[in-house]
Amino acid sequence: MHRVAVRGTPVAAAPLTWGQHAIWAAIGRTAPNDHYFNLTRVLTPPDRCRPLPVADASTRLGAALSRHPTLRTRIVAAPKIGPLAPGGPAHQEILAEVGVAVRTVTAVDDAEADRAADILATELAGTAFGYENEAPVRAGLVLVGGSVARVVLALCHLATDGHGADILLRDVRLALLGRTGPPPGDPLAVATEEMSAAGRARSDAVIGTWADTYRALPPSMFTTARAEPQPVRWWVGRLTSPALGLATAALAARHRTSVSSVLLAATAALVAADGGGDRAAVLTIVGNRFDPSRRDLVATLSQEGLFTLDTAADDFAGLLRPAWRESLRAYRSGSYDQAALDEALAAVSAERGTTVHPMCCFNDMRLVDLPPGTPPTAEQVHAARADTVFTWAPPQPQVACRFCAHVTADGPALTYQVTGDTRYLPPARLEAFVRALEDLVVSAVDGPAPLARLRSAVVAA
Amino acid sequence: MTAATLEADLAALVAQASEGGITAADALAEQESLGLLGLTSLGFLRLIHAVERGYGVALDLDDDVSFMDTVASLAAHLREQGI
């Protein structure tokens, strides 16, 4: 283990940004399992910079990390408040220098390096960051024959979101090549904008929309306790399906929507069917990088948006255009003062005499939506069906939600992963849910896909 | 603003929103949906953001959003708002 210095201009303690506040609150709800929010990335150094000595890699890594002030973030207790507690009152400051621990492991060859990197990434992200006293980055190097074959990063979600992690990875790659990326932008401008009159007004408008919607929503999705929870309560079911990827692309093209909104429509239809209703609310993770000045920021900008959909339609196709419109609205509802929103929604719950929270979220983590080229045909979709794989990933002991869908892409395949609370979604029901989602989307490529049969598909489990 | 200028400016915004994935010429020529050219949800949101900033309008997404389908439909929608 050695350390890399990350240096830059310090910034005095200030309130958390809206995105940081959202993650900090989620950390508070999830602790001591809060390593759940850590992000990992693995980079293979470009051939042009190999063989890459450890010393060179470390120097260049330090240079790349030093471009991003948020990677020197430390969380401190808010003034006049006792010791820092996860989710409690907190401020953030940016230090002049932090030391990033770098672990090295060895692998016998390049193929083995992939496996070693995955293991190292899991280990680096396997414990919560020391928010008060540790740099928000941990790094690792996988060596083959004494040279660096992989660079591994684990990142604290208070310093960056997933898009920021990808931008950082791009910068590390360029640094290994001796180059620098485009100017990364100024994360301090985010805080300034949030505190401005215009920022407050935008936040107030968004919060008003959330509160109005919460007044009319079912209090929650997944309200029926169906089983004793499993010993490790949150199970993670993972469907990897080329057919789902092709079918969503075909439907998105046919109905002039996006892959993301097709998946949101299918998720909403299944969520509503699970509860026996015809209105679904899903919290969507919004990247908030629409403004060019925010595009390349390594920072935590993502927050939850509110997606709702009336699912009372005969045919799934009837949901797709409304879901497209609602997804655009949801993605515009994801930037607000988190503390003020929490207060407003608590007031709505008090008005209604019951806690209102969807307990259901959706995070599309793909970087590209609709694949370019001719839309897939029904024949291609059906031919791919045999390659669908469902697996269980390791369960989680504590997640502050009942249904968390994560979407990732692997070539033409989509992976639709659900982390479900087994009290409300026992394992068989969770598996039936994701398989019914694939069935729904795939069958819609052929023609009408009746939504009435969803209830029986889920209930049968 | 002349018809040609508005459409051309919007097509340029589409190209920017797509981060170079779509040319302004292709955006201008697309008759069905900018999504078919590969404009992502993020791209549409960048476009909405840029149009609102650039033209000082608020695009209402509460009802039919088919005005976002093409450059021509977006231009027609903006003209209805006096642009």
TrEMBL record, chain A:
InterPro entries: CAT-like_dom_sf. It comes from Catellatospora methionotrophica. This is Condensation domain-containing protein.
TrEMBL record, chain B:
InterPro entries: ACP-like_sf, PP-bd_ACP. Residues 1-82 form the Carrier domain. It comes from the Bacteria. This is Carrier domain-containing protein. It comes from Catellatospora methionotrophica. The lineage of its organism: Bacteria, Bacillati, Actinomycetota, Actinomycetes, Micromonosporales.
